[in-house]
Design a protein that fits this description.
This protein has about 425 residues and is of the alpha/beta class. It is about 45% helix and about 15% strand. It folds into three domains: about 5-30 and about 290-435, Rossmann fold, CATH 3.40.50; about 35-155, Nitrogenase molybdenum iron protein domain (Rossmann fold); about 185-285, Rossmann fold (3-Layer(aba) Sandwich). Strand 2, helix 3 and strand 3 (about 80-85) form a beta-alpha-beta unit. It holds the Pfam family Oxidored_nitro.
Length: about 425
Amino acid sequence: MINSLEIINKLSKLDSINNMKDIKPLTYASFPGSHCPLFGSALLLKEVKDAVFVVIGTDECSYYTKQMTMRSEVYGGIDGRCVSIILNQHDITFGCQKKIESAFSELMEEYKPNAVFLITTCVVELIGDDVESLGYTLGEEYGVPVVTVHTEHFKSENHIIGLERTLSACIGIMERQAKSENISVNVIGQRSGNFIETELGKILNGSNVDINLMLPGCTVEDIRKAPQAHINIVTSSIGLPLAKKMRSKFKIPYILFEKFTDPEYILEAYNNLFDTLQLELPKEVIQLYNKANDAVNFGKEVLKGAKYIYGNTPFQCFEVNSFMTKLGMIPELIQVSYMTENDDKYIEDILSKENPYVCKSANIAPLQGVYDILKPDLYLGHEYATRLAKKGIAIVRSDMASAMAGMEVVNFFVEELVRAYKESKEYQGGTVNELM
C-alpha cells in the first residue's frame, strides 16, 4: 500500500533543484509510463509527408511503431512510410551493415522516397554500429538525402528528445539558397493546429511576411529550401537545437516564440521578431497586449490564493508556473518532464513567492493519496475529472492552447483558470465570490 505522506516527505523542494537529476519520481513504477524517443520521432515524421523512415532494432521496437503508424492514413497505412529492419542475434554480434545495405536497396526500388530517416533504437546504440556514416554513404550512392536519428531510451527520460533529434536531423536535407525576394520566415516546432490561423500567423500575414517552411508539416523539398528564409521562429524548445545549427551553418537568426503565458514575454518576443525583420511593430500587437493585461488583472482578483498541482500542459513548465504565481496562485506540486536552458529566470520568479514540491511527471496513480494531503483546488494536466471532483478538485483543460501563439494564449488560459476555480468552489460547497 502506498504511503502518500512518506512519498511527499521524500520529494525535493524547488529551491534544491538544479537539473532533472535532482527531480525524483513519486514512485519507481510510472502510470501512465513514459514514451521512448522512438515514439517522439515517429510522431514528428508523420508530418514530413514524402519521407520514409526506417526503424532499425528489435522486433518489439518495429512492431509497436508499425502498429501505431498503420492505423493512420497520414503515414500511408500498412504499406506506408514506416518500414523496419529487424536485427537478429547474428546482426547484434557481427554488426548490421550488410543487412541495412540490402534492405536499403529494396527500399529505394519499392518506395523511391525523396528522403530517408534511419531511426536507430537502443540495441543499435549499444552495439555501436556507425549507422550515421553508413547513411551518408548510402545517400551518396542513391542520390537521396539520408539522415540518422538516434532514439536510444536508456539515455533519456521521455519522447521529447526524439522530437528534438528528428527536427535537428533535418539540417542534413537542407541546401544553401538565395534569400527569398519577399521577407519570409521558417516556423519550427508548431505541432498542432494551423499556424496561419494563430494570432502570430495573422500578424505576420498582415505585415506581408511569408511562411517559407512549417516544420513539422511540410515536404522534403520545403526542408531543402529552408535556408532561403530570413529568420527562424522557434515555437517550442524542441526546435532550438535545429535553429542553432541553422544559425551556425546558414547564418539564419532565430527568435524563441514559445507558448508563453505572461504578456511581458510575448511582447518581448514580438519586439525581437519585428526588430530582427527590420519592420515596424504592428499597432495591433499593442492592442492585444493591453487586452491580455486586462485579463491578467481580472485573474489576479479572482485567482489569488488558489492552490494547484501542475501536471502536463502545452505550455513551458516553469514559465507557466511563474505566471500563475504572479496571479497570486499557490503551486503545491509541480510535475516536470524536462528542463530547458531558459528555466532559471522562471524558477527564480516562482521562488520569490513560493517553494513547491517538485517531482517527475507521468505518475497519476500515486497522486490519489497526495491530493488528500495537499488539498489543491485545481489540477492542470490530464487526469480523471470525475475522480478529481469527488475530492473537490477541478481540472484545468488547456489542450486547446496547443494551436495558439501570441496574446491569445493569455486570454484563453486565464479564462480557463477562472472557470475551473469557480467549479472547484462549487465542488467544495462555496463560491469564488465569497473569497473576493
